[in-house]
Amino acid sequence: MKRDVREFWNERVRGLAPYTPGEQPRDQRFIKLNTNENPYPPSPLVVEAVKQAADDRLRLYPDPECWELREAAAERFGVQPEQVFVGNGSDEILAFAFGAFFADKILFPDVTYSFYPVYARLWDVPFERPLLNDDFSINPGDYTKDAPHTGVVFPNPNAPTGRSMDVPTVLSIVKARKDSVVIVDEAYAAFSKENLSVARFVTANPNLLTIHTLSKFASLAGLRVGFAIGDENLIEGLRRMRDSFNSYTVDRLAQAGAAAVMKDRAYYEYVIRKVVDTRERVSTVLSSRGFEVIPSDANFLFVRCPSRKGEDFFAYLRERGILTRRFNENRIADFLRVSIGTDSDMDIFLEACRE
Ligand code: PMP
Asked: Which fold has domain 5-42+266-354?
């Protein structure tokens, strides 16, 4: 009989409660509306830069500090390269940040990115989850109450609801929490109607760390690149975490491709516009048919079918080759998160919803 080597798991690994990523089916027959990928290809400049980097230099380690990319990103975000950290996707940076900056307690909404409780448990940081309002908006007062040494993290726009907070409200939370780090996860901010990013305020607010990803607006989920923007010594804290773990988290091809993103603003503005237009169109159609649709500033919609339980709605769409994401949690089990695909993907989705 084969030996059950789980006996070798230590207490730490036995105690883990890992995140479950959205399904990545190995066959292509699904319309993939389940992991908020961008339906359009990355900029041709990015593909070319990755190809150009695929040469003899692959025998050499990449620059662990990603200087060239940090300079390009710094220019884009209006900060200094020393205020930029690059990671293997923003998930990696979030993992480092939870480990580096939180100790006593951390607050994040009850309905939010489901990786946050995983990181908090990983690093043994107690957390509290203030309830979103009934319309799924964040109540800023929950995060500005006097509670010393309490960190905060939330996405803006929030996931999986898509609802956003305006810049003055986000800054009011940052300013009320001066004695701890506030992380604003801007994974979806590029799809918002207004410029929601608070990255440009990090110099004035040294406790603010913003997190960014190229997986969504830049169509590069497969390249694995994310950024953090913040005070130099927050960046140094992240570097200390990284260099206690793996110094070369961002490979040579990823650094080259990511730097090229910063050079093709026009292409990405066009792609973002297309996704946003499709989102607005789909949202209007669904609302007119009696679906509950949460107002979204992201590249997905959070949708409840008026006549079916979430579980059944999910299974019904899956049988028709449409993958969406459902979270079997309090308050949101009847909602599906539907990523915005191409117009023709969304027409197929809308057609399925008509039945
Ligand atoms: N933050 C939020 C809110 C997300 O939804 C995601 C994507 N799952 C991430 C961070 C991580 O993105 P990535 O690791 O691809 O940069």
From this structure: Aspartate Aminotransferase, domain 1 (3.90.1150)
DSSP 247: S
Q: Where are the domains of the chain?
A: 5-42+266-354, 44-264
Q: Hey, whose CA ends up nearest to atom 1 of ligand 1?
A: 187
Q: Give the residue whose CA is nearest to atom 6 of ligand 1.
A: 187
284, amino acid identity: T
Cα angle 28, 293, 106 (rounded to 5 degrees) comes to: 90
Closest of 265, 101, 287 to residue 181, by C-alpha:
101
Give CA–CA dist 293/136, Å, rounded.
11
Joined tokens for residue 290: 């009696």
Closest ligand 1 atom to residue 225 Cα is 16
Strands (E), the chain: 31-32, 84-87, 105-107, 127-128, 150-155, 182-185, 208-213, 226-229, 292-293, 300-304, 322-323, 335-339
205: enclosing H helix or E strand: none
Ligand 1 binding pocket includes 38 (Cβ within 6 Å): no
Report the pLDDT value the prediction gives residue 355, as an integer from 0 to 100.
75
Pocket test for ligand 1, best of 19, 92, 113 (most atoms within 8 A of CB): 113
Residue 27: pLDDT over 80: no
**Is the minimum distance from the CB of 296 to ligand 1 under 6 angstroms?**
no
pLDDT tens column, 157-179: 999 999 999 999 999 999 999 99
Contact status, residue 257 vs residue 46, Cβ threshold 8 Å: yes
CATH class, domain 44-264, is alpha beta
For residue 155, report the distance from its CA to the centre of ligand 1, in Å: 9
Residues 6+ apart with CB under 8 A from 244: none
Asked if residues 340 and 282 have their Cβ atoms less than 8 Å apart, the reply is yes
Pull the structure tokens for residue 84: 């930029």
Contact, 323 vs 34, CB < 8 A?
yes
